[in-house]
Amino acid sequence: MRRGDRILWGVATSAFQIEGSLDADGRGKSIWDDFPSDAGETGAIACDHYRRWRGDVDLIAELGANAYRFSIAWPRLLPEGGGRVERRGVDHYSRLIDALLERGIAPVVTLFHWDLPATLDWRERDTAYRFAEYAQLCFDAYSDRVDWWLTINEPWIVGLLGFLHGLHAPGIKGDVRAEVTVFHHLLLAHGLATETYRGDGDIGIALNLCPHYAASDDPADVEATHASDEYVNRWFLDPLYGRGYPEGMRARYEEIVGELDFIEDGDLRTIAAPTGYLGINYYAPRVMQAVPGDAPWPWRVIVPGEWPTTAGFTGGIVSTEAGTPIFPRGLTDLLVRAHRDYGARVMVTENGAVYPEPLHDRRRIEFLRDHVDAVRDAVGQGVDVLGYCHWSLMDNFEWKLGYAQRFGLVHVDYDTQERTIKDSGRYYKELIAG
Question: How many CA atoms lie within 13 A of 276 on its CB side?
Fold first, then answer.
């Protein structure tokens, strides 16, 4: 934990992406259990972490990390989403937390990282109240040992990919009203849980924020950039910090779906319940170009031909193996903005890249170096950065993309489940020690 001058240097995972053992110890079904990747893969085995967690804790310690961000699987604790408590699930995470603390590793606990119990639906307001009950169960069980909590992971992605693009569970496509309803209920769930928290630690939320830049000086591109920023960033940041939903984006939604009547009196006050810090997941910038008449939003994301990087301008932007543009300065810009515009204490809760090399992953080392330098730049500008958690500890199940994309500092042989620390993991250990 960060107390005094100690900063968190961590690694991150999520339950469904690594645990497997979907039928073990009374776990209930989640919406992802029967939602395979494009290649037909599932999380049934994943990294077999539910059975191999002791060895994985040893790996985290070997990397020199002093923090581990992980998520609790809601269906393991409440198999029906609410009501009956499965003590075997509760005890599993208790043992994990104890093992981390024994090695001087601070648990950073995410309550919801997408594996919603199959009995529930984020389009329903009641799910937010079921989440608050689940959160209270976790607080009661673990708050004596956990100082860092995150309520919801990436609400924008949950709504966007689950209800507009249909790429994530539950696989609904083209439903703009469902998307914005889900956004609201996720934020409401965060607020309800935050209101109930009575521990001595800090509670926050993990947002996947994207720095926005106009593709040109054309006023239409500048306006599209502002509008997309309201959609991706401010739709979540503004209500969390007591400003309500941005009027421009609210008007765009209402033009398509009518009155947002699912927003009830008092909801915005609940959403703005004071939090201790803001988790920021950063992967890529959004360079915006206006596309009048495009649906549902009149803009698109482009990749510029030249881009200012820490090494100066490059002809053709450098990208990860997944095609994600690499722009470390964007992380600095995000952190500075969160501090300047919202007064937030921040933690980088995810930052990572896809590279296929099994062990000698030089490009990931460069990625790590440049992004940690970007965090240092933000600290130099006065940002209160609590920590940095690299995504991810090990290669894992990447949702709709299955097992093809590898983010890990640790290589996983999915046939044998053997773990091997990559060069990047050894570099990260040296970086932390330095």
Answer: 17
- The catalytically annotated residue of 19, 154, 230, 398 is 154
H helix runs in 37-118, sequence order: 49-62, 74-77, 87-102
Report the CATH fold assignment for 8-433.
TIM Barrel (3.20.20)
For the record, the structure tokens of 302 come out as 């482009």
Question: 87-102 and 126-142 are packed helices; what angle lies between their axes, rounded to 10 degrees?
Answer: 50
- Residue 154 · residue 148 · CB < 8 Å: no
Adjacent-strand bridge partners of 263: none
Mean predicted lDDT score pLDDT of the chain: 95
Does 179 participate in catalysis according to the annotation? no
pLDDT tens, residue by residue, 58-76: 999 999 999 999 999 999 9
Instruction: Pull the structure tokens for residue 90.
Output: 């509760």
Please tell me the predicted confidence (pLDDT) of residue 302. 87
Distance separating alpha carbons of residues 202 and 210, to the nearest angstrom: 24
User: With bands split at pLDDT 50, 70 and 90, how would you rate the model's confidence at 300?
Assistant: very high
Tokens matching residue 318: 């450098």
The most distant pair of C-alpha atoms in the chain lies apart, rounded to whole Å, by: 59
Taking the chain, what is the end-to-end CA distance rounded to the nearest angstrom?
A: 18
Task: Name the 3-class secondary structure at 308.
Answer: strand
Rounded Cα–Cα distance for residues 64 and 68 (Å) = 11
Confidence of residue 306 (pLDDT cuts 50, 70, 90): low
Strands 286-290 and 212-214: parallel
Compute how many other C-beta atoms are within 10 angstroms of the C-beta atom of residue 85. 15
- Domain borders along the chain are 8-433
Q: Which amino acid is at 159?
A: G
Please check whether residue 17 is in contact with residue 80, taking contact to mean a CB–CB distance below 8 angstroms: no
Residues in the chain: 434
The tokens 């093992």 sit on which residue?
A: 99
Active site residue 430: no
What is the torsion angle, in degrees rounded to the nearest 10, for the CA atoms of residue 85, residue 91, residue 92 and residue 94? 120
For the four alpha carbons of 18, 22, 28 and 34, in that order, the dihedral sign comes to: positive
Active-site choice (19, 86, 230, 350): 350
